[in-house]
Amino acid sequence: MPEHDSAVESVIESELALLAPEVRRSPERVGALLHPGFHEFGASGRHWDRAAIIALLAVTTDAESPPVVTSRMHGVRLAPDLVHLTFDTEHDGRRAHRSSLWRRTEAGWLLYFHQATPFSEQAR
């Protein structure tokens, strides 16, 4: 696989957009990035579907909250229409290892699955 992969770059850009407060507060903008079959296992252990996560983000994202800090983001194209991202986040003192699967559709690259696993600095 080449070092430069435009699919991976596009998916990273979209993943970072999903972490931005101005996107998270907008059901339309979040919805435009989520696959119709989206689901997530959150850091809380809860299972979220597309509608539930869109509604949650719209009401819980504070414009004044500190930004989500990402690190160690890495993407791999698993198939022509599938990209896997892994990365870590820190937000309000909470850390999580994250894994996302993005599928290419007629609408573009959409987030199909996401999982977050909390961790402490000692467990890293």
Automatic annotation (TrEMBL):
This is Nuclear transport factor 2 family protein. SUPFAM superfamilies: NTF2-like. InterPro entries: DUF4440, NTF2-like_dom_sf. Residues 12-111 form the DUF4440 domain.
